[in-house]
Amino acid sequence: MSQREPEIGRELFGRLGDTDVHRYVLSWPGGITVRVLDYGGVVQSLEAPDRDGVPANVVLGFPALDDYVENSRPGANRVFFGALVGRYANRIARGTFTLDGTVHHVPVNDGPNSLHGGPAGFDTEVWSATELREPDSVGVRLDLVSPDGDSGFPAAVSTQVTYRLDRSNRLSITYRATADAPTVLNLTNHTYWNLAGEGSGDVRGQSLMLNASRFCAVDRTLIPVGDPAPVEATPFDFRLPTAIGARIGASDPQLEIAGGYDHNWVLDDAGPFAAQACDPVSGRLLTMWTTEPGLQFYSGNFLTDELVGTGGRPYGRHAGFALEAQHFPDSPNRPDFPSTVLRPGEVYHQETVFQLSTAD
């Protein structure tokens, strides 16, 4: 691999009212190139070479800022392409939770539930950005202060998210946050992957392996019910590499509820390895590690051809898959789940790493 220096650049991507929105380009010569927006912390594109060295963009995204803004409006088929989501990634049942005896109500935007922080979550904010140049990596640090009562959530929260690209073709995302009063917090990145290249078709032929022996079954509104269930002898067993589409059409109540996969897997405790995906044609291999206890695997069940991507091609159902490292859905209402409570004096911290390589 080339030992030349990593590169970072900044360019104007658009304007949101009177605010400039920038795109940060992180690249390693001979490796991958990542483009990150300070709007929503969006990973807009990620170019990675195939086994023959031919690069392609392997994440789903929009070509223009207006497309992201329009997709966040009420009534849109919100897809959260590449975004940082919070304050609470995933769902809170009925938009209600109790913390220290006080009932809190947050906006409902997904049937009866709150999803990804509501209609005005972290994905709709312009973050303050700082370029980072380090001996073995380049990156961009994004900062955001969410005031007390933002979208109904208690406490003022200061959040810092850092994207770093290193010489091993690893994109790391490090999260840090503090609060001035008790609150709940659950952050993730919502990048959709298509290792054959965005806009190239659906991902059902790409393989996936998940380091998880249990998953959270859900009700008809995708809220977890009961204890996490074993994946053994179910379509949810990805402990060995399995094509995403191999069992997605099976007669299974959980698949029928979600229209495919849209569930939280409980990661096993055998280290930080979480998942690996591969496109057999291009040979691109994606390996993922995380410090989080859960992984939401979403198979793009509600993507449509009305969504036109960065390459100018319409997407469609299963055009990409998301691997969202996070705490479990509805944890504020489930004391048996790992806690998402953040108190003054504590530091929220997590790290997720994606590495792009090629299979032998």
What do these coordinates show?
A nine-stranded antiparallel sheet has the order 11-12-13-14-28-24-23-18-21, with no helix packed on it. Strands 17-26-25-22-19-20 form a six-stranded antiparallel sheet, with no helix packed on it. The two termini are 16 Å apart. It is built from two helices and 28 strands. The protein has helices spanning 65-71, 253-258; strands at 7-16, 19-27, 33-37, 43-49, 55-57, 84-85, 91-92, 96-99, 102-105, 114-115, 128-134, 137-146, 157-166, 170-179, 183-184, 188-189, 192-193, 207-210, 212-215, 229-230, 242-243, 262-267, 273-278, 284-290, 294-298, 321-326, 341-342, 348-358.
Blueprint of the fold:
Layout: E1 7-16, E2 19-27, E3 33-37, E4 43-49, E5 55-57, H1 65-71, E6 84-85, E7 91-92, E8 96-99, E9 102-105, E10 114-115, E11 128-134, E12 137-146, E13 157-166, E14 170-179, E15 183-184, E16 188-189, E17 192-193, E18 207-210, E19 212-215, E20 229-230, E21 242-243, H2 253-258, E22 262-267, E23 273-278, E24 284-290, E25 294-298, E26 321-326, E27 341-342, E28 348-358
Antiparallel strand pairs: 1-2, 2-3, 3-4, 4-5, 6-16, 7-10, 8-9, 11-12, 12-13, 13-14, 14-28, 15-27, 17-26, 18-21, 18-23, 19-20, 19-22, 22-25, 23-24, 24-28, 25-26
What class would the helix/strand composition place it in?
mainly beta
Strand order of the largest sheet: 11-12-13-14-28-24-23-18-21
CA-atom Rg in angstroms: 19 Å
Tally of helical segments: 2
Low-confidence stretches: none
Helix content: under 10%
The average pLDDT is: 96
The dominant shape is globular
The tally of strands reads 28
Distance between the termini: 16 Å
| Beta-strand percentage range | 35-45%
